[in-house]
Amino acid sequence: MKIVVVGATSAIAEHCCRLWAADGPVEFVLVARDMAKLERIAADLRVRGAGATVSTVKGEFHDPAGIKALVDQAAVSGPIDMALIAQGWLADQTSSQTDLAFLNESLQINTVSPALFAEAFAQHFATVGRGTIGIIGSVAGDRGRKANYSYGASKGFLARYAEGMDHRFAGTGVKIVLIKPGPTDSPMTADLKAKGKRVASAEDVARTIVAGMKAGKPMVYAPPIWRIIMLIVRHIPRFVFNKLSI
Amino acid sequence: MRPVSSWGRLSADPHEVIELTDRDRVAAEIGRHHPGIAHGLGKSYGDASLNPHGVLWHTTGLDRFMSFDAATGRLVCEPGVVLRDIQRALIPRGWGLPVVPGTQLVTVGGAIANDVHGKNHHLVGTFGDHVRRLKLVRTDGETIDCGPDLRRDWFAATVAGLGLTGLIVEAELQLRPSNGPWVDGEIVPFSGLDDFFRLSDESEASWEHTVSWIDCTSGRNVRGLFMRARPTEAKGQAWRERRKRMPLTPPLSLVNKLSLRPFNMLYYELNRRRTGVRTVHAEPFLFPLDSLQEWNRMYGPRGFFQYQSVVPREAALGATRDMLDAIAASGEGSFLAVLKTFGDCKPAGLLSFPRPGVTLALDFRNVPAIPALFGRLDAIVRAAGGRLYPAKDARMPREMFEATYPNLPAFQAFRDPGISSALSRRLMGS
């Protein structure tokens, strides 16, 4: 099995890789910006997975031609089975409102870059007729909230993008899986934890994601309880919602 | 600041938690944020990994394997790697940890810092006996490599050093060949301490793992179940982990004077009929509590203590009898009381707990009667020449620690002045 992971240094992506490595022989292609960190993860996976081969690529996250070349290169040795698109950055909402350059940077990494990668993988999978693309969205994308709408809107965009791709590939061997994690234990949520908020463990979230991608489900909430929570949040009428501070 | 508890849940004081995820940045992080203490999975029962209103260096993000040599069984890893993950990744490849404590859900760093022991102590010694090399980072930025044949003084201070000599960022462990996850296990009921000692003596040569559950309500004529297991190449029934979680903290301890006697009786009666040797998976047989996450909530909002002592073999019969009498008379106790003999090997660390003799471990809910009971138990342990396990301790008097750990003065020279825990302040003054 060949798996390409973009944004492989994210805590959720790393735990997904550990589960895949434990499950059987895997050929990983890991893409990230921080190569020192990525090499540590690669070494870890080589020990955890008995038959795992791991190659690391310094990622090009914003250049369309570079992204296309990266995906093509990953497919040279044989077709890709799964791709996980996991780059993301929980950009601070207040800074997004006051600093347009900051907002632009957040939109590039959370919106534009994942869409470019998704389309690049889709081209490859359309050619070979099968494959699974997992895209990390977020429960924050389910409804705009004052606390995090710049990040949430990016994740909402990915949800719509995945929905369209799912429609496009319906009835084929290509599966599009949109993943919506709730707050998860990672360096990204250190501030939340400092405020005493409960977060799910990255291992539990990854377990749900890996199972969902294996089954080819179109949408995965991780942990699953968020499906119910967000169902309620989405249906709170505006006149009530706008009085709430959630 | 956020509330952090240890396994005993006796406190939930606010801590400034520093998440360590990058081993190259550890020196910078602990250099900037100290005094502090390392905190892994929080399985020590007392205050060894707490620093109320101060800094905690959270190490569970430093959980990467670094290299493994399948020819020699040498594993190099970061300190936050969980023992269960080592077992699950490497037993299928023919190698396993020689020493695992009563739970696999502890980190490598914690296992070294407390020099933990397992049910096979009589054969293989403690965790520290299988550590080949350590890399230690101090709060002043210094890095110290040490091992049994390299800067041995630093190694002896760091093994069982309660995290006080520096932060371990890398450990090299010698694994041993493993035939797989199966063991031949047997449960033998016994009655009375003489019977226990006889079973211990006859089992130790041919059974790798030995431990006894005892009914702590039965007093000096203690009844119990002697459990022994040895690795086997045979394959037993497939086992799949069913992870459950204690869903909430009950308003009162579920372990109390009403439940104690019926539970212990039921446990004894149910298990005493399961005689004969059976091939079973090692995980549920050796670590039955690992499948119930957060079982420590069972003791309610006030938390609980564990009291683990060791007394020399020559005094063991009398001392154990006296302790069991005192416990039965108090009416307190737990569902899980454990008795085990330690082997004769000399421990690797200056402050290692195990010594030749007999160890008794019991949980006690946190109620007003406990200090008086523990005072009586302390007196018995002291008189027998024994001592208590710091990893489990939240309350031993400083003077008892000083008297029963004779290497303490030698240890003090290796402490990192930028590291301090609630335990170090309680037992060492700083």
CATH class of chain A, anyone? Alpha Beta
First-residue to last-residue Cα separation of chain A? 42 Å
Give the uncertain stretches of chain B in residue-range form. none
Instruction: State the CATH topology of chain A.
Output: Rossmann fold
Annotated CATH topology of the domain at 182-233 and 247-400 in chain B: Alpha-Beta Plaits
- Choose one word for the global shape of chain A: globular
Return the string of H and E elements of chain A: EHEHEHEHHEHEHHEHH
Helix coverage percent of chain A: 40-55%
How many distinct folded domains of chain A? 1
Fraction in beta strands of chain A: 15-25%
CATH class of the domain at 182-233 and 247-400 in chain B: Alpha Beta
Describe the structure.
- The complex is a heterodimer of chains A (246) and B (430).
- Chain A is globular.
- Chain A has a single domain, classed as Rossmann fold (3-Layer(aba) Sandwich).
- Chain A starts with a strand and ends in a 5-residue tail after the last helix.
- Chain A has helices spanning 11-23, 35-48, 64-74, 93-98, 100-128, 149-168, 190-194, 202-215, 225-235, 238-241, and strands spanning 2-6, 27-32, 53-58, 82-85, 130-136, 173-181, 219-222.
- Chain A has ten helices and seven strands.
- In chain A, α2 links the parallel β2 (27-32) and β3 (53-58).
- Chain A is an alpha/beta fold and 246 residues long.
- Chain A has a seven-stranded parallel sheet, with helices on both faces.
- In chain A, α1 packs across α8 (202-215) and α3 runs parallel beside α5 (100-128).
- The longest helix of chain A has 29 residues, at 100-128.
- With 430 residues, chain B is of the alpha+beta class.
- Chain B has a domain at 182-233 and 247-400: 2-Layer Sandwich (Alpha-Beta Plaits).
- Chain B is 27% helix and 25% strand.
- Chain B is built from 13 helices and 21 strands.
- Chain B has helices spanning 26-32, 83-90, 108-113, 121-124, 152-158, 193-203, 257-272, 282-286, 313-330, 370-383, 398-404, 408-412, 422-428; strands spanning 2-4, 13-19, 36-39, 55-58, 65-69, 74-77, 95-96, 131-137, 143-146, 167-174, 176-177, 182-191, 209-214, 223-231, 244-245, 278-281, 292-293, 304-311, 337-342, 357-365, 387-388.
- In chain B, the strands form five sheets. An eight-stranded antiparallel sheet of chain B has the order 16-12-14-13-19-20-18-21, sandwiched between helices. In chain B, strands 5-6-10-8-9 form a five-stranded antiparallel sheet.
- In chain B, a hairpin with a 4-residue loop joins β5 and β6.
- In chain B, α9 runs antiparallel to α10.
- The two termini of chain B are 22 Å apart.
- The relative contact order of chain B is 0.15.
- The mean pLDDT of chain B is 94.
- The interface between A and B is medium-sized, with 17 and 23 residues.
